[in-house]
Amino acid sequence: MHIPDGFLDAKACIATGALGAGAIAYGLKKTKMTLARPEVPKIALIGAFIFAAQMLNFPVSGATSGHFLGGALASILFGPAVGVVMMSAVLIVQALVFQDGGLTVLGANIFCSGVIGSYVGYGVYRLGLTLLRGKATKAVTFLAAWCSIVAASCAVAVLLAWSGTFPLNVALTAMAGWHSLIGIGEGLVTALVVAYLAERNVTFDSASASKEASAV
Predict the structure, then answer these.
(1) What's the burial of 32, exposed, middle or buried (CB within 10 Å: 0-12/13-18/19+)?
(2) Tens digit of pLDDT for each residue in 13-39?
(3) What is the CATH number of domain 10-209?
(4) In 3D, which of 12, 43, 4 has the Cα closest to residue 209?
(5) 3-class DSSP state of 67
(6) Where are the domains of the chain?
(7) Of 52-56, 97-101, 165-169, the least confident
(8) Where are the alpha helices (DSSP H) in the chain?
(9) Do 113 and 1 form a contact (C-beta atoms < 8 A)?
(10) CA atoms within 13 A on the CB side of 102
(11) This prediction's pTM
């Protein structure tokens, strides 16, 4: 899902650059208010896992690339603001060091993968908890992660069409179609990781995410 340089026009790059920068600033502010110091090593560990998983990507016909996202995992564990900051850091390092994703479209990658991926995943997860009266299940986590990556891929398709790179139907078919399948793996990995940590009483998001949600 990393968009390369040259795939978006100036208006899309400028608009998403502004949105991405605003989301990072907001995320840093909320993180400073809600993040407890003991959580920092845990964030670094999950961030490293997401970084490594995202490096395994493959080309998607008619669009950019497909890979594990991680936005839902980060936001479920730490809250969406922290998720955006984590995803942004991963995407920035990948673009600057590994040339995985373009520099002129860095804002677009942050907006699609970081902002949309984190907030859609977190929103679906919280909705599932509400409907199930606070009982988190692997199915809820799976659905949150699946929706997260599909929503992010649809946003990429819309940006490609807005820039005139591909017709919307071609971009949506390629991106949403492939990522609907990739989302199965994303959902399984996310559900297993969250369940594994819960079974071992490793606490992450609960307190800080609840404070963050009430503060938004």
Answers:
(1) exposed
(2) 999 999 999 999 999 998 887 676 677
(3) 1.10.1760.20
(4) 43
(5) strand
(6) 10-209
(7) 52-56
(8) 10-34, 40-54, 71-78, 80-98, 106-109, 117-131, 138-162, 168-199, 206-215
(9) yes
(10) 14
(11) 0.86
